[in-house]
Model the fold of this input.
Amino acid sequence: MRTFDLSPLYRSTVGFDRLFSMLDQTAGFENGNSYPPYNIERTGENSYRVTLAVAGFSESELTIEAKENTLTVKGEKAREANTRGSELLYQGIAARSFERLFRLADFVEVKGAGLEHGLLHIDLVRELPEAMKPRTIRISAPQNGKTIDSKAAA
Done:
């Protein structure tokens, strides 16, 4: 059984804290589920990118769904009939279907996705509502303040 220490990532991420906790607990290494491999990177203060290696899959064979706080990426590889008349001696390129789930932190939204050179890039942004954003409160001196009996007791 392999374990990975993801604690250094907690210090440098905002929005994926729960994700890293869940990855730490259920990374899938116990049951061997590591396909397809993926990266999670921080691309800005409140933006992230999930990249999955999906070589051999076309855009029509991939499905990305965001529902509540879960991002689901599915790949359904259609079985092709051997039309070239050749015999496959060794198959090292994975052509199996997959489903990968990512738990997203609150207020993280999917902004777009693109497939480039066998890598599926999914861009995420954390957008806090205005009511939850920190704001600076200006301190002002009291105007026309009245003093009530400022005599010291003797």
